[in-house]
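Renewal narrative, Specific Aim 1. Our central claim is that a sequence can be written position by position from structural information alone. The example that follows is taken directly from our test logs and has not been curated for this report. It begins with the structure tokens describing the chain, in the order in which they were read.
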């Protein structure tokens, strides 16, 4: 009985382990990590489902960005979203209520949380790809 449960579990772990390994080497994006950051720092304003309807966000004008608004999010450059999270709304011509998190949250974790907020409007594979492509854009711009 134990064997029957253990073997599939082990095999699954191995398969997923391999998949994870090659994937994380390329991107190092953790949606689980991003979710943790989001729940710690962002949820109060942007809301549990990313609709911009958190308890603290409701009364704000403009409201915190609604991440499920795919018409907006699809058009918005992901590098800009990254900048808003890092340097804050004010520096980017948005509401000063959106704080600069660059001193609190490490760049890797900002990638994680950006990928996580994108999952409110698209599937996780796309969300991670968008954050990865953003990184490429950044590297290209530096050349
Ligand atoms: C105190 C409330 C508050 C908190 C906390 C907060 N935000 Fe925001 N956020 C806002 C507001 C307000 C805006 C700006 C909306 C505007 O001006 O259109 C915004 C805008 C944004 C945008 C929009 C970028 C764009 O291109 O339009 C992103 C991305 C974002 N927040 C991510 C985050 C993340 C990630 C966290 C947590 C690390 C966070 N926010 C925490 C209030 C907040």
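The sequence written for that structure reads:
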């Amino acid at each position: 009985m134990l064997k029957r449960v253990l073997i599939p579990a082990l095999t699954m772990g191995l398969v997923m382990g391999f998949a994870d390994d090659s994937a994380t080497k390329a991107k190092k994006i953790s949606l689980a990590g991003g979710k943790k950051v989001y729940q710690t720092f962002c949820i109060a304003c942007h809301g549990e489902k990313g609709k911009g309807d958190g308890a603290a966000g409701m009364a704000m004008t403009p409201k915190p960005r609604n991440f499920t608004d795919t018409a907006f999010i699809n058009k918005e450059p992901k590098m800009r979203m990254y900048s808003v999270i890092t340097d804050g709304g004010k520096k980017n011509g948005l509401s000063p209520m959106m704080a600069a998190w660059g001193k609190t949250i490490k760049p890797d974790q900002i990638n994680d949380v950006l990928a996580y907020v994108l999952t409110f409007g698209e599937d996780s594979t796309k969300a991670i790809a968008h954050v990865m492509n953003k990184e490429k854009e950044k590297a290209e711009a530096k050349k």
